[in-house]
Specification:
The protein has two domains: 83 residues, no CATH class; 137 residues, GTP Cyclohydrolase I, domain 2. 38% of the residues lie in helices and 21% in strands. It has nine helices and seven strands; from the N terminus they run ααααββββαβαβαβαα. β2 and β3 form a beta hairpin. The radius of gyration is 21 Å and the shape is elongated. It binds zinc ion. The site of zinc ion (ZN) has 6 residues, from loops.
Amino acid sequence: MSNTKGGKRANGRRPNLADPVDGRVLVTEADRTGSPDAEYDPEYASMVGAQLAMLGEDPAREGLRRTPVRVARAMRWLTRGYELDVERVVGGAVFASESENMVMVRDIDLYSLCEHHMLPFFGKVHVAYIPDKHIVGLSKLPRIVEVFARRLQVQERLTEEIARAIEAVLKPKGVGVVVEASHLCMMMRGVEKQNSKTITSALRGIFRSDARTRDEFLRLAHNGSAATR
Ligand code: ZN
């Protein structure tokens, strides 16, 4: 998916009282009201019910009765990045500044889903930029990460999309992004060493052209993570 603008899902249907499993009403009043993240797609839930049966399970047994609804709701939350876009997330939080010093936010929590297996990958994101007359509210950097992480992703593209978004919002002298993540699709399937981490980086502007800036950024990114292990 390269839906970087977000805002529209392919499937924007509202939930209703459809039964995903066996004709009985599984959606309670509490499911339908309350917080927006309680919404889910009944068709998605019914697909999960079919999936349970294909796995050899009995979707009607007690412990699984509400699983299709729970999964549908969880997946909606875990992919809510499709409904977010960077401009909206940043809002008006771009400010004039004469500073030309590196701004860095380290250890931003990352939770995403790999697009090949729909299994989680998770870790840390380190983001830095060198301002050119503008800075952004620090809390906005983790929120920009969310926009792209809460979708089906590959780590390489995620890293690049975060860098590109910061570049578009701030027009800074340079941007650096490092992502270090563990992929459950590798760990659970025993494809690679259980504790291996995948590290990706995206460097733009002065982070690419100036060795000193790049080295400072990479040292800050990697030293810090070594210290917290
Ligand atoms: Zn995977």
